[in-house]
Amino acid sequence: MTELRHRGTTDNELQHQQSDDKGSESESKAERDGASDSETKPDFGVPDVPVPPDDTPEVLNKALSGLSSRWKNWWVRGILTLAMISFFFVIIYLGPMVLMMIVLCVQIKCFQEIITIGYSVYHSYHLPWFRTLSWYFLLCVNYFFYGETVTDYFFSLVQREEPLRILSKYHRFISFTLYLSGFCMFVLSLVKKHYRLQFYMFGWTHVTLLIIVTQSHLIIHNLFEGMIWFIVPISCVICNDIMAYMFGFFFGRTPLIKLSPKKTWEGFIGGFFATIVFGILLSYVMAGVRYFVCPVEFNNDTNRFTVDCEPSELFQLQDYTLPSVLESLTGWTTVKLYPFQIHSIALSSFASLIGPFGGFFASGFKRAFKIKDFANTIPGHGGIMDRFDCQYLMATFVNVYIASFIRGPNPSKVIQQLLALRLDQQLHIFNSLKAHLTEKGLLPALEEAA
Amino acid sequence: MTELRKRGGGGDPDSTDNISDKEADGEDRLGLCGEEDGDLEGDCKAYTPDVPPSTDNTPQCLNKALEGLSSRWRNWWVRGILSMTMISGFFLIIYLGPIMLIVVVMSVQIKCFQEIITIGYRVYHSYELPWFRTLSWYFLICVNYFFYGETVADYFGALVQREEPLQFLVRYHRFISFTLYVIGFCMFVLSLVKKHYRLQFYMFAWTHVTLLIVVTQSHLVIQNLFEGMIWFIVPISIVICNDIMAYLFGFFFGRTPLIKLSPKKTWEGFIGGFFSTVVFGFIFAYLLSQYQYFVCPVEYNSETNRFAVECEPSSLFVMQEYRLPAMVQNVIRWETVKLYPFQIHSIALSTFASLIGPFGGFFASGFKRAFKIKDFADTIPGHGGIMDRFDCQYLMATFVHVYIASFIRGPNPSKVLQQLLVLQPEQQLSIFNTLRAHLREKGMLPPAVPEAQ
């Protein structure tokens, strides 16, 4: 391990010579607000995270060579933003399957970015078991979650194929066994001089899994509710990002939080109102299209996803009477809205008010570990994780919102559980249900005796 | 805050010179000094002072009674007496019933959480930042609220339907829990202080991993308990028995070390413990399966407002005859043997407890070595903290829960009914028809009579 530590030292010296604007001098590093309580000594965490090379494609560089540095940066960011948004539209067009693949890829990339940072912080590149174990745990947790999703949504398909049925019946046991193997491998891999390091990486891996993998699976659950529940929240967060940036750029004066000095109150409030308006308009546009509104279902016969249904009442225009204040302003007595637009106000509010906390969390994390960006995947923007930090809480919020306010339990899941019960239990439930339905008047009272 | 860092640095400037190799990381405050774990002398001794030396917690009366014996036997007796006390306490709690058990599980969980968080504070010298403690306990309350709410909604369905405020809380339970958690998250972000970012993130992660480990396990324990107290008692007893038997076998026959991590464990103890645990589990399961009190699922009776443990024992707890394989027949000269099916399952539980359970113990040993602590705390004289006693239980609770879910029972019928009643009427009707067709097919319902038009 001595070489590792000396390598850290050497890199630091190299950094001294190479970059000045990153302030990687050990003394100035000590003054940076990202330092924790180890400033009395030079912090060797940063040098191991390489200075991001300028990743901008050559073509862009040529096109923008004439402009000054500030505007060049603005243009690079702007062009990449448009590229990402177009890409977003393309994958929406391609359908649910592709969306799931993209979510999976993003998840893996984010996981890799954060784990790489952990390796850099803890100088644990040379302990090969870590990388294997981290990826193994990622596989296990993904297997567990995807298995549950597949069992829920592809129920008929699973029942047909014998091997799938067995995998599905003992799914939890198999996932637990896989996880246990990883756990035992971890315990067996504990090496005398590196206990603490190994425990740190273990903890780091698990927290990363908790944050990233659960979020991505909640996104997929939202997606299956209807693509609108996937598109509108993500768009609201993106819009809030852009609008807050614009408002801050043009009107920004009062700093918002010490953690992110570039954020301003003007940007925050302007972004809030702009996002609400955007959310209402976007949901109006989307709620009329069946492709977005219907739950995604798997058709056993055609073996593909279908998005065809009778839109629920959430997506049917209804008349709302305006409060008298607005009546006098606009001269309308009623207004036709989709109920979903009312919900979109709640989503936009969350995205504008609480979403930024996810961004501050990521900023604090970057300062704590003295990195500028999570990685260099996107020129001008940093890594994938940088783009998705505000989405972090949004996915969970949408999922909880749907579960609490929009829908009850999934009927196919309930049937599945019913059929798994013992027959006497099924009979008992059948009788209770019959009594309940008869009470509600849904069954004729003269229904034949069970 | 300068004093804090200096204190963490080992107290005296001299020691920092000795740690020069590890100082190169700059991470020493965050404990990477632990890379020199095997040897406690010299460099990293700077850290042990922060964890106070274990005070001798033994009550005075015990001390007087044992002062005649030599140190080794005295230790043995202290441990022995405390073991007996704990086991008696265990029996007493079982006698007192399910509510008491839940309360005890809850207390143990809180104590374990507190022990681990205290270690985190010491490692990161974060006593002086008061927000951490508040936030850690707040997150504990949030997660417990979420889990207990789900449990209450499942098992106390009838009670909940009666009371209006409870109904509201149950319906929006996830939303309320999420809101509470988000508030804690925002408080964390707002509490980030300029020079302590990394420390704060470490404590945040430490808290979350601890919650993941301790709180989820304790709730799985409670879920197992509701399946029937036997699913709570037998696994815990098996783990305790394995601990004791492995210790005894190791004490008397131990020769070959098992794993570098715990030098006191031996292969003889491991294997001896395995076989004796399987036998113990088998016999213990036989004893307990006869009592309805242990075997029946715990149900809440809405009328009497108390827990009722009465039922028709499931087929798992009804004696059945098994034919012995020919080999065993020759040896014992019995053709069939009467067993409870549960005893077969107990073999699986014992096997897990003996083979995999110790890995939980090794994990805790590694953890203690990594952070250079001898015991998690000093709550129990001779044994260390609560966490020390429960480290092997760690994986057992999850295993039992997964085992039950996969091999024993299907979904909980009352939960399914509850979900049914929440659905839309059309969905209920469609499910009703599906279920009716299914039951007719299985012969549980008379076939359809042509209805009069």
From TrEMBL, chain A:
* Compartments reported by the entry: Membrane
What pathway, per the record?
A: Lipid metabolism; Phospholipid metabolism; CDP-diacylglycerol biosynthesis; CDP-diacylglycerol from sn-glycerol 3-phosphate: step 3/3
Skewed-composition ranges (Basic and acidic residues): 1-42
Record gene name: cds2
Recorded catalytic reaction(s): these are: 1-octadecanoyl-2-(5Z,8Z,11Z,14Z-eicosatetraenoyl)-sn-glycero-3-phosphate + CTP + H(+) = 1-octadecanoyl-2-(5Z,8Z,11Z,14Z-eicosatetraenoyl)-sn-glycero-3-cytidine-5'-diphosphate + diphosphate; 1,2-di-(9Z,12Z-octadecadienoyl)-sn-glycero-3-phosphate + CTP + H(+) = 1,2-di-(9Z,12Z-octadecadienoyl)-sn-glycero-3-cytidine-5'-diphosphate + diphosphate; 1,2-di-(9Z-octadecenoyl)-sn-glycero-3-phosphate + CTP + H(+) = 1,2-di-(9Z-octadecenoyl)-sn-glycero-3-cytidine-5'-diphosphate + diphosphate; 1-octadecanoyl-2-(4Z,7Z,10Z,13Z,16Z,19Z-docosahexaenoyl)-sn-glycero-3-phosphate + CTP + H(+) = 1-octadecanoyl-2-(4Z,7Z,10Z,13Z,16Z,19Z-docosahexaenoyl)-sn-glycero-3-cytidine-5'-diphosphate + diphosphate
Its EC number is 2.7.7.41
What GO CC annotations are associated with the protein?
endoplasmic reticulum membrane
A Pfam family of this chain:
CTP_transf_1
> Could you tell me which species this protein originates from?
Chanos chanos (Milkfish)
MF-aspect GO terms: phosphatidate cytidylyltransferase activity
Q: Which family does it belong to?
A: Belongs to the CDS family.
Topology with respect to the bilayer: Multi-pass membrane protein
* EC top class named in words: transferase
Q: Which GO terms describe its biological process?
A: CDP-diacylglycerol biosynthetic process
The task this protein performs is described as: Catalyzes the conversion of phosphatidic acid (PA) to CDP-diacylglycerol (CDP-DAG), an essential intermediate in the synthesis of phosphatidylglycerol, cardiolipin and phosphatidylinositol.
Q: Where is this region: Disordered?
A: 1-54
Q: What is this protein called?
A: Phosphatidate cytidylyltransferase
Recorded hits in InterPro entries, A to Z, give: PC_trans, PC_Trfase_euk
* Regions that span the bilayer: 74-94, 100-122, 129-146, 173-191, 198-220, 226-251, 272-293, 340-362
Listed A to Z, the keywords are:
Lipid biosynthesis, Lipid metabolism, Membrane, Nucleotidyltransferase, Phospholipid biosynthesis, Phospholipid metabolism, Transferase, Transmembrane, Transmembrane helix
Q: What is its main location?
A: membrane
TrEMBL record, chain B:
Q: Which GO terms describe its cellular component?
A: endoplasmic reticulum membrane
Q: In which pathway does it act?
A: Phospholipid metabolism; CDP-diacylglycerol biosynthesis; CDP-diacylglycerol from sn-glycerol 3-phosphate: step 3/3; Lipid metabolism
Q: Which domain of life is it from?
A: Eukaryota
EC number of the protein: 2.7.7.41
What membrane topology is given? Multi-pass membrane protein
* Predominant subcellular localization, coarse grouping: membrane
- InterPro entries tied to this protein: PC_trans, PC_Trfase_euk
Would the keyword Kinase be found if you checked this record's keyword annotation? no
- Role: Catalyzes the conversion of phosphatidic acid (PA) to CDP-diacylglycerol (CDP-DAG), an essential intermediate in the synthesis of phosphatidylglycerol, cardiolipin and phosphatidylinositol.
- What protein family is recorded? Belongs to the CDS family.
Q: What is this protein called?
A: Phosphatidate cytidylyltransferase
Q: Which organism is it from?
A: Chanos chanos (Milkfish)
